[in-house]
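Weekly sync, protein design subgroup
Attendees: M.S., D.O., the rotation student, P.L. (late)

Item 1: inverse folding check
M.S. brought a backbone from last month's batch and wanted to see whether the design step gives back something sensible before we order anything. D.O. pointed out we never logged the input encoding, so this time it goes straight into the notes. Structure tokens as presented (401 positions):
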């Protein structure tokens, strides 16, 4: 009898959750781009690239958001093989529909500035932020490093589906997809007709090159291996590779000053992924002294918090190429979070995190439509009560190894 009541309560809660989801957004089917295979534009396993597309309407019918999925990178053959049989390396493993909420929602109440635009979510299956291009395929691994071709093929397909007639367009992404939005920002604009209002939004994609807690540049070495494995050098900005090593040109701080298209950075100053994988990766903390701290900042010792505050200072310094341009915008909060545009909770609700009385949605909208400048930079942790000491740590964004 008791178990029956528990099950009944569970079903009621499940129905309520599904009704809430239906109100805030919608499920969108997967499109596999079979025509891209003949161009060699394929995922790690050779399967076709894929995306989800929800058409715009009314005033938004000629406006486009192209949003790139995140999911880390693979820096050598071993880890690319590991991804090959997952959704991050094969469209065969992707779910047939995904949920659009937050920045991609079709509900005006929850996404007031972009709800009626054409909204696309490009799935991530190459492991290089869509920069790789190696012609040869090793018969022993059958790995395809073709991220750059995927990006071009998907954009060509979207242009044919109406994006060629766009009036406004945004290239955006979360995490590794946020890095894609930075590295491909000018290239995206060049694909569209003259006169289109084009801007880019990077969510949790401003990865910085700083020393880890052991004093090593672990992330610099890692990014260097990503670029080498995927043959990314030729697809990184030449203005950067002509003066720095290719691996450094995978970092936004070294390429941002040469991007001419307006760009907006949404990032936590204490980005949970960067804290766990750049500042205090497992290799730099073999005894696990940072384990509890990385789970929740409230568990950090005073010394660890001091290191965090120094990290924030380095992050803001690395952000200067963005903030030095009046056409760009930023929303840098002090929450412990990674990716804030897709989850409705962090994008736009009654209790979303705010900086200078703006949610992420308000800041991005004000910047895109030029209603007011958006240069929201939060005070230091734990100053912001709108974070409510929540720990936002999205699943599906793997760490580095």
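Designed sequence read out in the meeting:
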């Amino acid at each position: 009898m008791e178990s029956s009541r528990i099950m009944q309560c569970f079903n009621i809660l499940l129905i309520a959750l599904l009704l809430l989801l239906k109100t805030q957004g919608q499920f969108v089917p997967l499109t596999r781009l079979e025509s891209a295979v003949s161009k060699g534009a394929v995922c790690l396993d050779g399967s076709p690239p894929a995306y989800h597309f929800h058409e715009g309407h009314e005033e938004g019918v000629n406006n486009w958001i192209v949003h790139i999925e995140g999911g880390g990178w693979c820096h050598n053959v071993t880890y690319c093989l590991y991804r090959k049989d997952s959704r991050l390396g094969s469209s065969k493993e992707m779910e047939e529909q995904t949920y659009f909420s937050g920045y991609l929602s079709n509900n005006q109440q929850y996404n007031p500035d972009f709800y009626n635009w054409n909204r696309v979510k490009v799935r991530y299956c190459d492991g290089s932020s869509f920069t790789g291009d190696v012609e040869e395929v090793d018969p022993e691994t059958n790995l395809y490093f073709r991220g750059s071709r995927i990006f071009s093929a998907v954009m060509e397909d979207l242009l044919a589906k109406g994006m060629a007639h766009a009036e406004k367009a945004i290239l955006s992404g979360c995490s590794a997809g946020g890095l894609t939005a930075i590295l491909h920002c000018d290239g995206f604009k060049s694909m569209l007709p003259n006169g289109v209002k084009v801007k880019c939004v990077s969510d949790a994609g401003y990865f910085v090159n700083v020393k880890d807690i052991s004093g090593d540049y672990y992330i610099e070495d890692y990014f260097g291996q990503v670029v080498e494995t995927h043959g990314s050098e030729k697809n990184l900005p030449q203005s950067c590779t002509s003066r720095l090593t290719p691996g450094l040109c995978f970092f936004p701080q070294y390429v941002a000053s040469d991007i001419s298209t307006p760009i907006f950075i949404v990032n936590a100053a204490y980005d949970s992924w960067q804290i766990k994988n750049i500042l205090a990766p497992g290799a730099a903390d073999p005894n696990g002294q940072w384990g509890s701290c990385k789970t929740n900042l409230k568990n950090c010792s005073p010394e660890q918090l001091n290191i965090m505050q120094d990290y924030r200072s380095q992050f803001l310094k690395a952000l200067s190429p963005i903030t030095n341009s009046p056409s760009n915008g930023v929303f840098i909060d002090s929450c412990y979070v990674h990716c804030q545009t897709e989850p409705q909770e962090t994008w736009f609700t009654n209790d979303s995190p705010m900086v200078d009385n703006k949610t992420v949605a308000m800041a991005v909208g004000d910047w895109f439509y030029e209603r007011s400048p958006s240069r929201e930079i939060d005070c230091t942790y734990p100053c912001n009560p709108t974070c409510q000491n929540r720990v936002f740590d999205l699943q599906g964004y793997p760490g580095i190894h």
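Discussion: The longest strand covers residues 26-32. Residues 56 and 118 are 4 Å apart (CA to CA).
Action: P.L. to compare against the previous round before Friday.
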